[in-house]
Amino acid sequence: MENAWYTISVYSENNVGLLNRISGIFLKRHINIESLNVSKSEIDNVSKFTIVVFTTPKWVHNIVGQIEKQIEVIKVFSHTDDEIIYQEAALFKVNSSLLFDEREIQNIIKDSNAQIVTVSRDFFVISKSGRRSEVDTLYDQLKPFGIMQFVRSGRIAISKAEMQISSLLKDF
Amino acid sequence: MTTTTNPSKKMKISGAEAIIHCLLAEGVDLIYGYPGGAIMPVYDELYKFQDKLTHILTRHEQGATHAAQGYARVSGNVGVAIATSGPGATNLVTGLADAQIDSTPMVCITGQVGRHLLGTDAFQETDIIGISTPVTKWNYQITEASEIPEILAKAFYIARSGRPGPVLIDITKNAQFDSLDFHYEKCTKVRSYVPTPVASKESLSKAAVLINEAKKPFIIFGQGVILSEAEKELKDFVEKSGIPAAWTVLGLSALDTSHPLNVGMVGMHGNYGPNMLTNECDVLITIGMRFDDRVTGNLETYAKQAKVIHFEIDPAEVDKNVKTTVAVLGDAKASLRDILPLINENSHEAWLKNFHEYYEIEYNEVIKNDIYPTKPGLTMGEAIRILNEKSENKAVIVTDVGQHQMIACRYAGFSQTKSNVTSGGLGTMGFALPAAIGAKMGAPDREVVAIIGDGGYQMTIQELGTIFQNKTAVKIMVLNNEHLGMVRQWQELFFESRYASTVMSNPDFVKIAAGYDIEAARVSERDQLSGAIEKMMAHKGPYFLEVCVENEHNVFPMIPSGASVSDIRLK
C-alpha cells in the first residue's frame, strides 16, 4: 500500500502525560510525526491534537484504533488532505534595513498575503499562514535577503464532514 | 486505632491509610510487594492493618507482579502489586508489559519521591510514569493526598473493565503523609472510556447467516472467553452449531480439552489439523483472540479462502492483522448468548473427520513418541501425560516460556477453566514460579503445578524464599534438559546447530530446594517417573521435582517463523 498524508485529529481530556502516551504509539510503530499541534477545541475542557503523518492506510487504521483506546481519548478521526481545510502559520524575522533598501521585499510581502506584525528599529516580523507550499514559497523568496529567525507551526485542520464530539460526550 | 473501614463516612486520615481503605473497599485482601524508602508510609499502615490485608513479601518486585498476575488469572480478580520508587518501580516493568499484552487485570502502586523533589534527580527518583506508559492500560501520578480515593477507584475500574489490563499509580511520599477527608466511591464510569461495546443486532444476524450457511466452519477461541466468563456460552454455541473448535495458548482451558468438538491448538506449535484446516475452512469464527503472529504465521496466506467473523471487545483489534467479513464488537459472553438463538442446530461430521484424520497423522508422527516414548531418555511429553493422570485434569498448570510451555499446552488436560496460566504474549521467562505462588493463593483449594524449564526457573528462583516463608503449597516440576531448549531448537533448525550460549551448567536444584526446606526429588528413569509425580501430587506442602529429560528433543509440529499455517512441519 502507498504512503499518503493523513491528518489525525484527537479529541481528549486535558491531562498531564497524555501527549507522551499518544506519541508513544507512533514511536512503537517507528512512524515519524511530521507535525503536531495541541490546542483547545470547540468544546470546553476538551483538547484537540492535530497530528500529521505520511504512512499507509493500514497503519493509519492501526494508529487511530490504538489512540482511541487510550482511556482519556474521546474520539479520533483521520482524514486525507482533500477531506480537510488545513493551514500552518509561520513567522519570519528580517532585518529592518531590508524594508527600506530592498524594494522587492515589499512586493514579496504584498503578493504573498503575508502580514507585518511588528516593526522595530532593528527587525520586523512577518506572519504568514496558509498551506505548507505557500509558506515554503515565501521562505524561498526571503531566504536570499537573509532570514534572522524562522518558525512554522504544526498543521491545524478543520474537517469538511462533521466531527460529532458533543453528542458523543453526552453518550458517555 | 482506626482499623475500621467505613468508606461512606468521612474521616480525616493520612494518604497512606487512605490507600489501605481504598484497597479494602475494592475487596482486596491480598497484595504482593517489596518495601523501600518512598513507600514506607504505606507499609507502616499495612503493619497496622495486617489482620485485614495480607501482604506477601516476594523476593524481587518482578516476582510481585507475576504473583499478582497468577492470582488474577485464576481468580478473575484484580491482582495488586506494590513497590517503592526508582529500582522498585522499574522492576515492575516486565510484569506490567506481560499483563498488558495478556490482558491481565492488575493495579501496581509505586511510591515516589516527595513532590518538592520531583525532577531533581533525587535518591531513587525515576520517571516511572514515562517508563510505564507504553505498557499500561492507564497510569497516573498522585501528588496530593486528596486525589487518592478517586484515582484508586478509577484504577481498579479501568484495570478490570472491558479488555482488562495493568494500571500503575505512582504516589509521591508527601501525598502518603498528608491527610485528607476520606470518602470512597467506587468508579463505574469514566468519560471518554467505553470499556464494553454492545454488539449490534445487524452484526449478530450477519454472523449468524454466515455460520448457518457454512459447510466447513471453524472456531478459534482465545482468552476473551475466559476474561468474560463465557465458557458456558462457548460450549452451548459449539454444541448447538456442531462446529469444531480450536484454541490459542491463552484460550486453553476455556473448553474441556476432552470435549469431542475440541480439536486442539492453533499456532506455531499447535496441532496439525487446526493449522492445516485454517486454510481450508469456509467460515472462520474467532472469539476473543487477536490473531497474534504466533497464531497466524504468514498473514498473506492466512485463511484467505475464508469469511472471517471476529467476536472482539477491543475495537482496535478488529482488522488489525486479519481483515474480517463481520466484526461482532462486544463482550464475548453477551455476544455468544445473543447469537445462540440465531444459530441452527447442526453437525459437521464429514468436516470434523478431516480434523480426526490429521490428528491420526500427528499422533503417529509426533504425539505417540512424545507421550509414550520407547527410546531411552525421558520426554517432557510423558511427564505431562502422567501429570494429567495423577491430577485427573483438575490442576492449575502454570508454565514458563519455551519448549516445556509448548509441550505442556499441547498435552496438558483441563476440565476446568482459568487453569492454564502462562506468559503467552510477552513470552516472559521467569514468569512461572512467582505466578504459581499467586495462582495458589488465588485458588487455594486447587492443586497448582508450576512446570518450568531449567533456564526460566533460574530467572526468578529467589521466589523459593517466598514459598518457604508462606509455606505456599505449589508443586514445582522443572523439566531439565540442560539447555535453553527452544533457542537451541531454533539454532539446530535455522542456524546449523551452532549452539551459541544455550548450554546450561546447572546447580543441584534438589539441594537448593532443600536449602529452603522444600521437599525435593530428582527423577531420570522412566520406571520411576510415575511414582515420582504421584509422590509430588500427594505431598501436602510445597514440593520440588526435577525431571531430567532428553537434552536435544525438538517440539513438533512447527510452523517456521513467517511461514504459512499450512506449511506446518511434523519433523
Features:
heterodimer; A: 172 residues; alpha+beta; Alpha-Beta Plaits; four-stranded antiparallel sheet; 6 helices; 9 strands; 38% strand; B: 571 residues; alpha/beta; Rossmann fold; six-stranded parallel sheet; 38% helix; 17% strand
Largest interface: A-B, 22 and 23 residues
Q: Give the proportion of residues in helices of chain B.
A: 25-40%
CATH superfamily annotation of the largest domain in chain A: ACT domain
Order of helices and strands of chain A: EHEEHEEHHEEHEEH
> Distance between the terminal alpha carbons of chain A, to the nearest Å?
36 Å
Helix/strand-derived category of chain A reads alpha+beta
- State the CATH topology of the largest domain in chain A: Alpha-Beta Plaits
Overall average residue pLDDT of chain A: 93
Low-confidence stretches of chain A: none
Q: How many domain regions of chain A?
A: 2
Briefly, what is this?
Chain A is α+β, with helices and mostly antiparallel strands.
What can you tell me about this protein's structure?
The complex is a heterodimer of chains A (172) and B (571). Chain A is α+β, with helices and mostly antiparallel strands and 172 residues long. Helix content of chain A is 33%, strand content 38%. Chain A folds into 2 domains: 81 residues, 2-Layer Sandwich (Alpha-Beta Plaits); 67 residues, Alpha-Beta Plaits. Chain A contains 6 helices and 9 strands. Chain A is elongated. The model of chain A has no long low-confidence stretch (mean pLDDT 93). Chain B folds into 3 domains: 172 residues, Rossmann fold, CATH 3.40.50.970; 155 residues, TPP-binding domain (Rossmann fold); 169 residues, Thiamin diphosphate (ThDP)-binding fold, Pyr/PP domains (Rossmann fold, 3-Layer(aba) Sandwich). Chain B has a 6-stranded parallel sheet with strand order 3-2-4-5-7-6, with helices on both faces. Chain B has a 6-stranded parallel sheet with strand order 11-10-9-12-13-14, sandwiched between helices. Helices cover 38% and strands 17% of the residues of chain B. In chain B, helix 1 packs parallel to helix 7, helix 11 runs parallel beside helix 14 and helix 16 crosses helix 23. Chain B is α/β, with parallel strands linked by helices and 571 residues long.
